User: Which sequence fits this backbone?
């Protein structure tokens, strides 16, 4: 079964450093998402991406965050200057269309900001 | 966006059928209902989706009454490995965006 691959599985960084989280979605998917989950809390929507542009973003997704899909395969989330409160599990997800709730999630990248 | 309410936790025993009910009183006409499962430190996994009546797949059944104000996920003969958090999510028909709530933590005991 095809799967969504995320790297790194765990990253530890110092506050203020830039972090890039990478995702390889399933090849025929057209809609891409980033979610995050702070330990013990619910899964939160960050951003959706379609046709090489952001289609929707949440209040969490401020100017410190950016996404891109530079080569048509990798889908990246960049946090420009990390804060302690960015520590969370970040999940990439993809889907084939919007008329379905079936998204395929990766296993996540755990970010720890010290 | 439809607000959902589901029990915070449920306990069951191996081999039993588990039914988790979710209420979504203000669901929009073009919203689907999906259910996801999440194990600790893993990404959510799609279980099943429906719009009305009953849907069944190899994992679960989903019952949605005619008024669509609630839905019930039915897991037949649960095992220890079904211990997880289960989320009920209305899906906006035109965005595909999922908004997760707190979910129901199901604990299956031997």
Assistant:
């Amino acid at each position: 079964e095809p799967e969504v691959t995320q790297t790194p599985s765990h990253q530890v960084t110092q506050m203020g450093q830039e972090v890039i989280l990478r995702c390889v979605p399933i090849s025929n998917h057209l809609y891409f998402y980033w979610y995050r989950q702070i330990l013990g809390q619910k899964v939160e929507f960050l951003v959706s991406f379609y046709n090489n542009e952001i289609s929707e973003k949440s209040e969490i997704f401020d100017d410190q965050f950016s996404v891109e899909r530079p080569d048509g395969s990798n889908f990246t989330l960049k946090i420009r200057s990390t804060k302690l409160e960015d520590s969370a599990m970040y999940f990439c997800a993809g889907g084939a269309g919007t008329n379905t709730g079936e998204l395929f999630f990766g296993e996540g990248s755990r970010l720890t900001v010290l | 966006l439809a607000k959902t309410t589901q029990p915070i936790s449920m306990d069951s025993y191996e081999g039993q059928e588990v039914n988790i009910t979710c209420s979504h009183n203000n669901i929009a006409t073009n919203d689907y209902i999906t259910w996801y499962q999440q194990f600790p430190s893993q990404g959510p996994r799609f279980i099943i989706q429906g719009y009305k009546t009953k849907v069944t797949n190899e994992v679960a059944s989903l019952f949605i009454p005619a008024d669509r104000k609630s839905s019930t996920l039915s897991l037949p003969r649960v095992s220890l490995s079904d211990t997880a958090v289960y989320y009920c999510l209305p899906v906006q028909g035109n965005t595909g965006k999922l908004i997760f709530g707190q979910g129901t933590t199901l604990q299956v005991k031997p």
